[in-house]
Amino acid sequence: MTDLRFSLPKSTFRRTTALVAVTLAGLLAASSPTSAEDGAGGAGTAASGEARALAAPDIPLANVKAHLTQFQSIATANGGNRAHGRPGYRASLDYVKAKLDAAGFTTTVQQFTSSGSTGYNLIADWPGGDADRIVMAGAHLDSVSSGAGINDNGSGSAAVLETALAVSRAQLQPTKHLRFAWWGAEELGLVGSRYYVNNLPAADRSKISGYINLDMVGSPNPGYFVYDDDPAIEKVFKDWYAGIGVATEIETEGDGRSDHASFKNVGIPVGGLFTGASRAKTAAQAAKWGGTSGQAFDRCYHSSCDSTTNINDTALDRNSDALAHAIWTLGTEEPLPPGEVYESTGDVAVPDNGAAVTSTLTVSGRTGNAPAALRVGVDIKHTWRGDLVVDLLAPDGTAYRLKSSSSSDSADNVIATYTVDASSETADGNWRLRVQDVAAQDTGYIDSWKLTF
Ligand code: TRP
Ligand code: ZN
Ligand code: CA
């Protein structure tokens, strides 16, 4: 861990490696899992896999709720909704934009037309960070016309807004560039987000490392659902929830049904959080999360009763804190220095003309995927190496053939370095070298092997 290879962005920069042991235990002791108070998550919950990122602050629930109160007032003053093409939408956008402008964001209003009305996306860039690696979070800001849309999707809009404002309060200096977005006309079929993505030049699309979507994150009878898409984003959310002792499930109530689909469709990695819409909570879900089984997660979904009373504070608080954790973790992580070597030196006998054997190497503390040129150093002692079939097994079991058998190759030993494109594999986990001897008489053993990340 050669920290000195990196310049520290600012004086308050510190790695969470040292913090985890101190603060995680303290936080867990101090906060009950069902607490609606702030502090259920927040600073110090970084898991070991993201040890090289800054710890996020707690997002004050009161601030998030204050935004919801404003969205409700805006709807009430504008015919009861904040729908596309109605004055309540533009007023919502102006409210969010004013907060971001005052906090130092560079905001852009992007205009489009849908169903004969002008729609608007709001994009807010936090100055700084690597412009080639953008971490993005967004939420749709429009409601349906039948109500104020406080859970759908004032909740996601307010959580993203308050996380952005927390970035400003911290004067965060992320390694990656941070961008926040509020979409118009989602309720007409993901119109605003699709417009944004379609108008991004292909070269800019590939700079978005990940898009995180929050749509309905304060459902009154909540479930805790994490999108099952990009593994790195999913892990950051699951780790955060594991840290407060709350079970999560994979989101299955309609995978293409929110703005992340616009990004996913063009190959941008996505993730997100969701507390459920019109589907009913099962008995098993009520047992682990509380609430009412047999009842919809949100009985006011797309109805006039989706008002400020249609919010579960604990769910809103947790998801706001979880988003901040994801932004801090993904936005401030330092790439581990290339060239780190993991080695296994325990001997493993390879039975003659027998079953395959494996030797395991545990890789931990890295984020994201393995390199496109993962080097696999192999040292197998054997008296006829043509007998041997050698594979590298990724943590998920995917096999990469390193060497096939060959009856004519009578040389001793396999001492070689292979290069494997492992960029689709998660780096952390148990990697295995699998060796099988497929012909009789000569034998040997795995002496050592190593992976260079
Ligand atoms: N706004 C979404 C919609 O009306 C709500 C929704 C339903 C949703 N299922 C979802 C959001 C799954 C995220 C994930 O369709
Ligand atoms: Zn929605
Ligand atoms: Ca043999």
Can you describe what's shown?
This protein is α+β, with helices and mostly antiparallel strands and 453 residues long. It has 2 domains: 10-332, Zn peptidases (Aminopeptidase, 3-Layer(aba) Sandwich), CATH 3.40.630; 341-452, Jelly Rolls, CATH 2.60.120. It contains 10 helices and 17 strands. Helix 2 (61-77) runs antiparallel to helix 3 (87-102), helix 2 crosses helix 4 (150-170) and helix 4 packs across helix 10. It is elongated. The structure holds tryptophan, zinc ion (ZN) and calcium ion.
> What is the number of E strands?
17
In total, the number of domains comes to 2
Radius of gyration: 25 Å
Helix content: 25-40%
Shape: elongated
Spans where pLDDT lies below 50 across 5 or more residues = 1-51
Looking at CATH, the homologous superfamily of the largest domain is Zn peptidases
User: Count the helices. How many?
Assistant: 10
- SS class: alpha+beta
The CATH class label of the largest domain is Alpha Beta
Report the sheet with the most strands, covering strand number, pairing sense and barrel closure.
8 strands, mixed
Short description:
The protein starts with 16 loop residues before the first helix and ends with a strand. It is an alpha+beta fold and 453 residues long. Helix content is 28%, strand content 25%.
Draw up the topology in text.
Layout: H1 17-30, H2 61-77, H3 87-102, E1 106-114, E2 117-126, E3 130-140, H4 150-170, E4 176-183, H5 191-198, H6 202-205, E5 208-214, E6 225-226, H7 231-243, E7 249-250, H8 260-264, E8 270-274, H9 283-289, H10 313-332, E9 341-344, E10 348-350, E11 357-363, E12 374-382, E13 388-393, E14 399-403, E15 414-420, E16 429-437, E17 444-452
Parallel strand pairs: 3-4, 3-5, 5-8, 6-7
Antiparallel strand pairs: 1-2, 2-4, 6-8, 9-17, 10-17, 11-16, 12-15, 12-17, 13-14, 13-16
Bound molecules: tryptophan, zinc ion and calcium ion (CA).
Residues 352-353, 387, 437, 439-443 line the site of calcium ion (CA).
